[in-house]
Amino acid sequence: MTTALLEVEGLSKNFGGLQVSSDITLDLKAGDRCALIGPNGAGKTTFVNLVTGVLAPTAGTIRLEGQDVTTLSAEARVRRGLIRSFQVARLFRSMTVREHLELAVLERERKTFRLFASVRRMPGLADEVAGLLDAMGLGAAAETPVGTLAYGQQRLLEIALALALKPKVLILDEPAAGVPHSESHRILDALDRLPADLAVLMIEHDMDLVFRFARRIIVLAQGRLLCSGTAQEIAADPRVRDVYLGSRAHVHQ
Amino acid sequence: MSAVATNRPRRETAGRRLRRAALDGAAVPVMAVLGLAAFWLFPDDLGLMTRIAATALYVLSLDLVLGFGGIATLGQAAMFGTGAYAAGIAAVNLVNEPITLLAIGGVAGGLIALVTGALILHARGLTLLMLTIAVVQIVQEVANKARDWTGGSDGLSGIDPAPVLGLFRFDLYGRTSYLFALAVLIVGYLVARRIVRSPFGLACRGVKEDPLRVAALGGSPKRYLVTLYAVAGVFAGVAGALTAVTSGIVGLDSASFSWSAEALVMLVLGGTGRLYGAVIGTVAFMTIHHILASSDPFHWMLFIGLFLMAIVLFAPGGITSGIERVVHRLKRGRA
User: Fold this and answer.
1) Is the pLDDT of residue B160 over 50?
2) Which CATH class name applies to B16-334?
3) Among candidate residues B248, B54, B99, B81, the one with its CA nearest the CA of residue B159
4) Domain ranges, ordered by start, for chain B
5) What is the ipTM of this complex?
6) What CATH architecture is A4-252?
7) Per-residue pLDDT tens for B190-208?
8) Taking a C-beta distance cutoff of 8 angstroms, is the pair A220, A240 a contact?
9) Looking at the predicted structure, is the pLDDT value of residue A249 above 50?
10) Which of A75, A90, A99, A112 to mutate to test the interface with B (most CBs of B within 10 A)?
């Protein structure tokens, strides 16, 4: 399949006189494993908010499977398969892991307006939730309220929630943020098992994770697309060194 | 080491969940047994107990909105009063079959909640609180001005319901009234529990905690809230109609701000987010109210106030969470 699942064209956003995104164009195809990197303040989070519909762009279009979704609400984009995970695990603290996944599956199947059905007896629901729990290694924590869950497990639940919605395009906003380095391999394992035909865009600071996961890396600086390419190309690009890797190299010297 | 650290709290929370599930399951049989026992034990207080049962259904409706949807409201009496007046007016002019009257009250309460909810539920927090107060004031003022229908400040009287199911006449001692109210409360409780455990109930709990996260799962928070508000409006409307049918009169105070606030006090007293909390809070508040008001007609409000402050200070989750904590501590002490 060669047609792009997600096409972003000339996307710009101004906050008053401040231009936080300017003229960003990129596309994601089925099976893409793409990472968006850039120094702090490069406009990565703004970009995610524009694409997912939390913010309205000043200019530009966003197409999902060829259809213009620029003016659709965030919910409507989710229902079309454009799913995101959150940088800070954003979960329902008093609900258990199982209840989270039940809610996500029921949302996807548009069954949440059934007032007199029992969640426990929804056909197929328990099996699907069990499958998701297994896939993320969360089976033992199924009945734990999320507020008392270890942070790494909360991150895994974020990914499981996104998967429960059967995404076509998945945007992962710093999936390993706050996870100790010794645990980040568990996140990476989970990412390796994502469905092959999914288009994934990952925003991440952890360069190990980026270089191991992404087959294409896009660099954002000061709201603009600086360059894109494979891990080797990006690592060798002097402009990238200047804005990003370079500054880190200086610190280490 | 990490296994120990993660396992311990898990087992405890699982235990708490089990206990809550057990309390949930026991609630209906306990309510039925205690309700019937009270029928034999306090034959002179049937009037009060009937009011308690109808009010418990009303507070239950508030628990649906506040405890399960996180909608801050001081206007739940708008739905209660609309249901009461709708049933009362229908009883005077159209029908007098009691279950039909309850249905009329429920539909009226649900409709007013649907219309006003769709208008005000885009707001949150304090703004929403003010809007709910505005709604209940408007409903009360409409009832006050529509004297021909509602009797205005004199109240609506002349409600004379037919026998329940054509068999049980409303007697002078209030026996039928009480048993009818108790039965309606239990049925209402069962329906509410069903809704809370449904996919819809799960989604509402999600909206209560984080509406934007629900939107990121593809749900529309406002649609859930408006639906929940309307469903709770049906419960409040039925409770209002039940009060009208069993007491025979409807007054302006049934759609008042203070009646809304009193429901909130009863719910907080019992504990929000648990259906049995609403029932326990209503029974506790109205019983204490009754005892204090008859023993010391001048200072009873003071004692109610002190009692509430003690609850808020020492059992912030209400009576039910206080009981749960004591039971928990006793069990740990024994182990």
Assistant:
1) yes
2) mainly alpha
3) B248
4) 16-334
5) 0.85
6) 3-Layer(aba) Sandwich (3.40)
7) 999 999 999 999 999 999 9
8) no
9) no
10) A112
